[in-house]
Amino acid sequence: MTYSVPSQASLLAWITYGESFAGILRQVRVRRQISQQILAELSGVSRSQISNLERTDRFVDPTLSTVYKLAQALEVPPAVLLPGVGELVTPLCAGMAQEGGREEAAVLHPEHVAPFPASYVEQRRRDQRLASQWQQRREWKRPVQRQV
């Protein structure tokens, strides 16, 4: 099996997508009027990871499961968080997110995301804590399997 070293152009393309993802994630979170801490509680992704994903001064490359967890917590389709959905992968992605993205997919724009009502956020946080507690209790009650 042979591996090729990524070219400078392909590396640039991924970096611009990472920067675009960072900006979109932050924009949607801010439009929902929730902090990184609240998003962490709702998504199960650590606050420090969310902070790193929102930073544009470094390359970000979230896993698919992280994107889906964040999308579920923000109640947006995962495609909203992904720059260049439906487009060919090119180094021009960074400008696209800053200019508002694809014109034909206006429903997918982060600008159309409304804030969460405070009472809704609190209810979701309570539900998340209860689910987490329930999961911990389930794990505690699991019988330990011994190797024979």
Write the layout of secondary structure elements.
Layout (H helix, E strand, L loop, with lengths): L7 H24 L4 H8 L3 H8 L9 H11 L3 H4 L11 H6 L19 H24 L7
Helix pairs in contact: 2-3, 2-4
Protein name: Helix-turn-helix transcriptional regulator
Pfam families: HTH_3
GO molecular function: DNA binding
Describe this structure in words.
The protein has helices spanning about 10-30, 35-45, 45-55, 65-75, 80, 95-100, 120-140. It has about 150 residues and is mostly helical. The protein has a single domain (about 10-115), classed as Orthogonal Bundle (434 Repressor (Amino-terminal Domain)), CATH 1.10.260.40. Mean pLDDT is about 75; it is low at about 1-5 and about 90-105.
Quick structural summary:
GO terms for molecular function: DNA binding. This is Helix-turn-helix transcriptional regulator. The chain is mainly alpha-helical and 148 residues long.
